[in-house]
């Protein structure tokens, strides 16, 4: 794909969102489309696979605030004729475009992300070369294009997430061609420097006081020509394949947290670096434990007599059981802290286990227990204890 084709693509339309869509709207639209179009869900469907790649490409640009801003600016300039002939789009005296005062250096690599990561600074670098002969300083624009980042999800059990686990992930995404090792050339051959642009990927033409540069048609802006393309990837250096990778999820990961795996994303074109893989972890709720930061929470049922007289109860932990002492006269709902028995911390150590005692009221008592309870209530009144003493509703 040439740079012009890339700019003329409507990534918003690919995702089915408006140009003013929020980051959350873009993410939601991408997830739905990626789930529906994923090759695993559409085996043998070439159209679905192509749409999946297009949607992934659109998301890679629009989900990155810097790339999205550059993309929007470039499309605005093309739409308004900012790069065309006449129309007042380019004002050399003001150093900007139109009335907005847009700084050309921001878009064409004068600083920021565009200058170093193969973004629009590479695509449009050297577009305006001062001088009638277009003999200004030239720059190489055919830097290898880094692969897009890839997102996926994995679901873990509560204890797996808190203690850490290693899980296999099956991914279908563009990866380096194993036949040509990403070069795009048939094994035993190599790409050659484009003779028309001398490897720069751009050609210049004169127009008035300026020399304009545009992508070279012979090499499609890459700076090199492949005479014998790889028969597997057809010269792209990338093939869509399914692979299984092993991911180690660290202890203490929380629901919704992302894990970044450098270089495990979509392959770059013709041997360029691969993007990253971001794995979003979903954690299933546990029947016993809850979580509050690095602390585990647990509710243990006790009898009224155990709270009054005090006792020691055995409660579960992530790796076994521990005895918790309930002091005499403990109130219902009190939280008892067991230090160091919570979620492991990245810096070492662990949070605490917070045990809430909750009175379990018997639904039915036999005659001896009923008589004993009546005797207790009479003794309680005789001792002067009033559970509603000082209560506002008394």
Automatic annotation (TrEMBL):
Record's keyword annotation contains Secreted: no
Binding residue positions for Zn(2+) 1: 177, 180, 230, 233
Annotated domain remarks: The J domain is necessary and sufficient to stimulate DnaK ATPase activity. Zinc center 1 plays an important role in the autonomous, DnaK-independent chaperone activity of DnaJ. Zinc center 2 is essential for interaction with DnaK and for DnaJ activity.
Pfam families on file: DnaJ, DnaJ_C, DnaJ_CXXCXGXG
An annotated GO BP: protein refolding
Segments forming domain CR-type: 164-242
Residues given in the record as Zn(2+) 2 binding sites: 194, 197, 216, 219
Co-factor note (free text): Binds 2 Zn(2+) ions per monomer.
Assembly: Homodimer.
Primary subcellular site in the record, as a coarse category: cytoplasm
GO molecular function: ATP binding; heat shock protein binding; unfolded protein binding; zinc ion binding
Database matches in PANTHER family: CHAPERONE PROTEIN DNAJ 1 (PTHR43096:SF54), DNAJ HOMOLOG 1, MITOCHONDRIAL-RELATED (PTHR43096)
Species classification: Bacteria, Bacillati, Actinomycetota, Actinomycetes, Mycobacteriales
Entry function: Participates actively in the response to hyperosmotic and heat shock by preventing the aggregation of stress-denatured proteins and by disaggregating proteins, also in an autonomous, DnaK-independent fashion. Unfolded proteins bind initially to DnaJ; upon interaction with the DnaJ-bound protein, DnaK hydrolyzes its bound ATP, resulting in the formation of a stable complex. GrpE releases ADP from DnaK; ATP binding to DnaK triggers the release of the substrate protein, thus completing the reaction cycle.
Keyword tags: Chaperone, Cytoplasm, DNA replication, Metal-binding, Repeat, Stress response, Zinc, Zinc-finger
Record's keyword annotation contains Chaperone: yes
Cited InterPro entries: DnaJ, DnaJ_C, DnaJ_domain, DnaJ_domain_CS, HSP40/DnaJ_pept-bd, HSP_DnaJ_Cys-rich_dom, HSP_DnaJ_Cys-rich_dom_sf, J_dom_sf
Family: Belongs to the DnaJ family.
Domain of life according to the entry: Bacteria
The CXXCXGXG motif repeat ranges on this chain: 177-184, 194-201, 216-223, 230-237
Descriptive protein name: Chaperone protein DnaJ
Location of the protein in the cell: Cytoplasm
Signal peptide as annotated in the record: none
GO CC, one annotated term: cytoplasm
All residue ranges annotated as the J domain in the record: 10-75
């Amino acid at each position: 794909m040439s740079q012009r084709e890339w700019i003329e693509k409507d990534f918003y339309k690919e995702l089915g969102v408006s140009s003013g869509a929020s980051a959350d709207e873009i993410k939601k639209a991408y997830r739905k489309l990626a789930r529906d179009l994923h090759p695993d869900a559409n085996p043998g469907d070439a159209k679905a696979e192509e749409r999946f790649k297009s949607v992934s490409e659109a998301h890679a640009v629009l989900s990155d605030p810097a790339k999205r801003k550059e993309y929007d600016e470039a499309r605005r300039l093309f739409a308004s004729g900012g790069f065309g002939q006449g129309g007042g789009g380019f004002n050399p005296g003001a150093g900007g475009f139109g009335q907005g005062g847009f700084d050309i250096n921001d878009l064409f690599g004068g600083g920021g992300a565009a200058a170093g990561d193969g973004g629009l600074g590479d695509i449009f670098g050297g577009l305006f070369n001062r001088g009638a002969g277009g003999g200004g300083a030239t720059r190489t624009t055919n830097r290898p294009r880094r692969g897009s980042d890839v997102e996926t999800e994995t679901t873990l059990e509560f204890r797996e997430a808190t203690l850490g686990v290693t899980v296999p992930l099956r991914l279908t995404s563009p990866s380096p061609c194993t036949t040509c090792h990403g070069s795009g050339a048939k094994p035993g051959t190599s790409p050659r420097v484009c003779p028309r642009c001398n490897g720069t990927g751009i050609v210049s033409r004169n127009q008035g006081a300026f020399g304009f540069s545009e992508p070279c048609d012979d090499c499609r802006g890459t700076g090199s020509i492949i005479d014998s393309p790889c028969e597997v990837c057809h010269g792209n250096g990338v093939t869509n394949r399914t692979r299984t990778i092993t991911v180690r999820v660290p202890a203490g990961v929380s629901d919704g947290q992302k894990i970044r795996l450098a270089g495990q994303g979509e392959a770059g074109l013709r041997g360029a670096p691969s993007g990253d893989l971001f794995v979003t972890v979903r954690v299933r709720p546990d029947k016993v434990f809850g979580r509050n930061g690095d602390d585990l929470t647990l509710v243990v049922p006790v009898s009224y007599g155990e709270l009054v007289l005090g006792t020691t109860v055995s409660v579960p932990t992530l790796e076994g059981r521990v005895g918790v002492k309930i002091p005499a006269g403990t109130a219902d709902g009190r939280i008892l802290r067991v230090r160091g028995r919570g979620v492991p911390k990245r810096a070492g150590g662990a949070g605490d286990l917070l045990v809430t005692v909750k009175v379990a009221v018997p639904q039915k008592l036999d005659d001896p227990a009923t008589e004993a309870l009546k005797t207790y209530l009479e003794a309680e009144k005789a001792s002067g204890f009033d559970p509603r003493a000082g209560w506002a509703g008394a």
